Amino acid sequence: QVQLVESGGGLVQAGASLRLSCVASGSSFKQNAVGWFRKDPGTEREFVAGISWNGGDTYYADSYKGRFTISRDNAKNMAYLQMDSLTPEDTAVYYCAARFATIVVVPALWDYWGQGTQVTVSA
């Protein structure tokens, strides 16, 4: 079992940066890929970025390449999403997820989820 708790969301102006954090409990976190997803009201969760269990592989949805950076620190049971050059279109609830397998973009295939953290970007 892995339990995830996100933090770091907030209200920022366009062009600013935020770093989201995800702290995990459970010894198996180190064996899990981690993903970040976003959810807009009335829509399904959308894949943003993923990182393999050892950090060796990362994958980004096209909309976030070059602006967002995913990372992890297994010694601290932490994962991060550095978000730069934010725009109002990045406004959403962001979720951390984990799965004991490779990175996939389909939300239903992830096993563990945090409660989400709100990111709001004003124009």
Question: What does this protein structure show overall?
Answer:
The mean pLDDT is 96. The strands form 2 sheets. Strands 2, 4, 5, 6, 9, 10 and 11 form a 7-stranded mixed beta sheet that branches. A 4-stranded antiparallel beta sheet has the order 1-3-8-7, with no helix packed on it. It is mainly beta. It has strands at residues 3-7, 10-13, 18-25, 33-39, 46-51, 58-60, 68-73, 78-83, 92-99, 112-113, 117-122. It has no helices and 11 strands. It is globular.
In short:
It contains no helices and 11 strands. The chain is mainly β and 123 residues long.
Which geometry do the CA atoms define?
globular
Which sequence of SSEs, written as H and E, runs from N to C? EEEEEEEEEEE
- What ranges have pLDDT less than 50 throughout 5 or more consecutive residues? none
Query: Major beta sheet, specifics?
Result: 7 strands, mixed
Helix content: under 10%
Mean pLDDT metric: 96
The helix count comes to 0
What is the CA-atom radius of gyration, in angstroms? 13 Å
Quantity of strands, as a count: 11
Compute the separation of the termini in Å.
40 Å
Quickly give the structural class: mainly beta
Strand content: over 45%
Q: What's the helix and strand layout?
A:
Layout: E1 3-7, E2 10-13, E3 18-25, E4 33-39, E5 46-51, E6 58-60, E7 68-73, E8 78-83, E9 92-99, E10 112-113, E11 117-122
